[in-house]
């Protein structure tokens, strides 16, 4: 049932798990340290209302931080049932922190970019990057999944994770057409700008936007092809001094064919 839900909608949520809560308890202190580390100052964005924190958590390939357990629980058990994910190493987690007022305008960005962040939650496909001065889009990273693990309690709409249900199918179909007849080694050389923009428009027009929030010990999983983002900080949102702090794991795969073709 959970597998079908994930394949149909492109996301699933996992209830409280003591194994995951043990990991959160161990990860919270080093996660906090990443935010205050001067070496990570570059990760603050939008008037310091978002700490991006990509790959800053000092975990090992099993997810362990110093003195803590490996990353375990129902979410990890489920992920290993998905094609191509029977065995893999974890990347260093992103520590994504939002604060009241997210997002503020950023110097040098256009009004259109700011409106997209406000009105469309900065919706994106992970791994599809802007390249060059003209910012054309190329698929440069092939993530297995996006696993979100809240590290602190929040209330209200504290910049929740946003996903468009079924978007993974629209994006997956568009990528299959774009890469048809090409070898895997050529995929990251294909300019996907217009193809992606057209597919994303279809997503916005036809897919339901869903906000996902969870508490420490819970988790949510997004399909690797999904369009997702992060909502603005809501007027009803409440959080402690840590803000809204979530660890995201997005390990990459070298098996590009499974990445493209698997459900």
TrEMBL record:
<protein>
    <recommendedName>
        <fullName>Phytanoyl-CoA dioxygenase PhyH</fullName>
    </recommendedName>
</protein>
